[in-house]
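Lab notebook, bench 4. Still working through the backlog of constructs that have no structural model yet. Next entry is a single chain of 152 residues. Request: give me the structure tokens for it.
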Amino acid sequence: MFKRVVIFASLPLIASCAAQSLHTEEVTYYQVETSKPYDEVLAELEVAIAEHNFRITGHSRVGKVIRDRGATNFPEYDTVQFCNLTLAKVVLEITPHAIGYMPCNVVTYQFDGKTIVRTHLLPEDTDNPALNKFAKEMNPQLQQIVDFAAEQ
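Model written out:
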């Protein structure tokens, strides 16, 4: 009898320790492939970002750094981060949890003779209608940036 009481009394405590996430949306990616030279893709990416009124906040040339450390013939891998502070303010006023999507990010890398250009999109199906509306306006811009960088 005592064991049953202990077990039932501890169930709420055990349940309260279970991890609950704030968001359960799935991260969606937008990706294109191109046979355009890698350096051209990066140059076009910078142009597209500027044309959409974003500013580059970081550029990590992971592949180059690995080659510089002695790994000859290591493929290209780059990550370009960018932001528009006006839009950042808008989305953070909608929800502070949106900080997890900032800054915007595009990765480029070589795979099977192609250059891959990829970005994550904002979720459009959350329980926050204002965030969904913002995402539906922002995602086409992110896709246009990727498309411009990759188009022949």
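Notes after review: Residues 24-150 form a domain with the TATA-Binding Protein fold (CATH 3.30.310.70). Confidence is low (pLDDT under 50) at residues 4-23. Flag for follow-up if needed.
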